[in-house]
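Chain X:
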Amino acid sequence: MQISSDSAIQWEQTPTLCEVVQRVSGAADANVSLRRGRFVSGAADGVEVIQIDTGAICVWVLPTRGMGIWKIQAGEQTLGWKSPVEGPVHPALVPIHDDSGIGWLEGFDELLVRCGLESNGAPEWDADGKLIYPLHGRIANLPAGNLKVEFDAESGRLTLSGQVNESRLFFKNLQLESCLTVTAGQSQVQVEDRVTNRMSQPAKTQMLYHINVGVPLLSAGAKVRIASTDVTGKDATSQAEIEQWNQVGPPVSGYGERVYFIAPEATGDWSAALLQSADSQQGLGVAFDTTTLPHLVMWKNTAAVEDGYVVGLEPATNLPNQRSQEEAAGRIVSLEPGGTVVYRLSLNVLQSATEVEGFASQHRLL
């Protein structure tokens, strides 16, 4: 998968996040670097990008798109997917509130994209046909501010943080504070998100992490491994293929998406899912804290590569149905005034059969 060339990005010559960035960039012993820039052409024009290189992986973070992770590079391997929208797409060009309810899809391109905060699932309309909750919510199309970098030279740990506000006068004021942490020489990205209700009245919120991988890791023979046998198809089409729910086939033009709901089993409050390559030599492991992310969704869309050949692993607070359905089932997070919920997960880039099996063994994956 091709990463946009530097000619499409205007990089800052002098980092300005804060003084510590300069120390990070110059910390030779730590083997970690950071640079900041903006895309300068096409639908990505104006999208801010922060590139963090640990020496083992290079992580592309998009503050303009809700602190999403666009791609991760590990040597010649790129984790992400070939979305037809060919992003990243600036949020100003994404018609979130399109009457169809699915305008969100016009900006869907990242490796990791958050869905929330007011709702995270299917679009929903009122009795008069007016859209109430758009597909997957607004948070991925809102810009982050108050960006900060913290670096500990002794451990080689670097944390990038930013705040995203999802608010409307009289209705809601939810704040996402996202912290992304990497360590020099390591191939893991840790994510810790804090969502706070900043209103004087109680609020309800949802979160889903849409983690999406396509070629080259994804190919016929790849498979998903989880710590559970409790898997249900979202619809009749998905359920009809339940025996091969975790098996990935070749790209097929016109193939319709399959979605599976999983009740993950936890070990010490954490569970995990693994997408491993057909030869088991590579993989992406996703570990998540089930105390606040008790559900897992698998999205399998093995359409033609140019149409979006991709598998999604999605830890979530709930199932991605309409919000009213999830609220009726009690699958929604309630926050008192000033209340906060914390979500934790990690992305683990696995680059050998030993690393793949080590992750699977650590998390007791089937």
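Chain Y:
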Amino acid sequence: MALTTEEVDICNQALGKFGAKRFTFGDVTSTPSVLCLLHYPQTRDALLRSYQWRFAKDRSALSTNGTPEFEWDYQFALPDDFLMMRSIYENRFSEENLRSYALEGNLLLTNENSMQIRYIKKVTDTTEFDPLFTEVLILTLAIKLVIPLTGGGSGGLNMEEKLRKELKILIRDVRALDGQESNTTGQDNLETWNDARYA
């Protein structure tokens, strides 16, 4: 599958971080385009899983999907865009009433007859990205691309190290900003939401 115009723009910003040749939309044969097509989807999804980005948060009341072979009483289909569990909803929060579960493939297995979850979803539309997520994605792609496109010489290695330092600073800033914007009394932090400790 070819990259969209917006995805090409992100890849070209990554290439520009170390002065590599850029490519245009529709180019599927040049080395930069082939490498970007290889790395972009996996890098995007890995970054979505690595942090609880607000734009990727979602919730769902799951639907039952058959019966497990053993061990659990019920199984539920996870949403099609599911990437990572955040928490499950508890009507009454207590240590004795935590809803245990297991994730297997695209199913959630449990002994509960209903299940409501909060999760990180797969977001492919770049217009939905947080600007800071886009910056992290650009730098992470640049780190993956710099050695293949510049070679393993000292110049490429030095540039990779520079990019890693830049990414480290950016991630620190993202976490600091997230801490400032966190809603410590809002719905996301009510005790009726059980952390995804069983995932």
